[in-house]
Design goal:
The chain is α+β, with helices and mostly antiparallel strands. It has 10 helices and 5 strands. It has helices spanning about 1-25, 30-50, 65-90, 90-100, 105-135, 170-175, 175-185, 190-200, 205-230, 235-245; strands at about 140-145, 145-150, 160, 165, 255.
């Protein structure tokens, strides 16, 4: 378990630097595609960097903090394993008391981390399950490369994987909603959300991860809005529709809901 925590600590440092730079510098720029790929590709790189090590003769100023962290974590891990060996070698009568006294910081931290990860994983699975139940409740239609699910109830239209779930009202009276959700599907925004959902489970304690996920969803909306306008929809009419839809509930955290 200590190896997992060491990986989490290292990847947290890399992700924090990436997201802090993005939120402080890039989020206000109009380069939606660039910002999206910066978040997605940068996140993948930050998750892989802890597995990669480079040996150099001279340590630079940039490398010193990470090397110090590595030394500290290695020393802590060794101390924890030594404590466990001492507990195993203790006399039977004193073993219970020794175990209580030698509960390591890593043990407590591991328990808290796993509890948070389990809760976040359960919430993610619940969101996917709710979407799937709604999709399965109606007969999907294969249309232009996507599964279209028309729901008679008044719901917030959303897209997930290769499914577009849309209310009957939007299907009949708001073609811009269809174009918007089709843009989400064509640009594979669901894949981004699946990646960030996995990252948020591993890094549930890092508020910058949740902020970056929110920014990514916003970038998805900007890209979809741009596609609607590109296809000739009236911008003013579309803005009024967005305002009207903004007050509706967003029930599926894993989906790109129309907003």
């Amino acid at each position: 378990m200590s190896a997992i925590l060491i990986y989490i600590i290292k990847s947290t440092l890399y992700l924090t630097l990436l997201y802090a730079f993005f939120l402080g510098v890039m989020r206000k720029t109009p380069f939606f595609r660039l910002n999206r790929w910066m978040l997605v590709v940068g996140t993948v790189v930050c998750m892989l960097l802890p597995f990669y090590s480079v040996s150099v003769e001279e340590t630079s100023m940039v490398q010193m903090p990470m090397q110090s962290l590595n030394a500290f974590l290695a020393e802590t891990s060794v101390h924890s394993s030594v404590s466990e060996e001492e507990v195993a070698a203790a006399p039977v009568m004193e073993k219970a008391a020794t175990e209580t006294e030698n509960i390591s910081f890593f043990t407590i931290l591991s328990f808290l981390y796993m509890a948070g990860a389990v809760v976040c994983g359960w919430l993610t699975c619940r969101s996917i399950s709710r979407m799937q139940r709604l999709i399965d409740a109606f007969l999907p239609m294969w249309k232009d490369g996507v599964w279209l699910v028309v729901v008679p109830d008044s719901i917030a239209s959303f897209s997930w994987n290769r499914h577009m779930v849309i209310s009957e009202e939007d299907y009949r009276h708001h073609p811009s909603v269809i174009i918007h959700e089709e843009a989400h599907l064509r640009k594979h925004h669901s894949w981004d959300l699946m990646l960030f959902s996995f990252v948020s489970i591993l890094h549930w304690f890092n508020p910058l991860v949740w902020m970056a996920m929110k920014e990514l969803k916003q970038l998805h909306e900007y890209e979809a809005d741009k596609e609607v306008i590109r296809q000739g929809m009236d911008a003013t009419e579309y803005q009024l529709l967005l305002v009207k839809k903004a007050v509706g509930p967003k029930l599926y955290s894993m989906a790109n809901s129309f907003n």
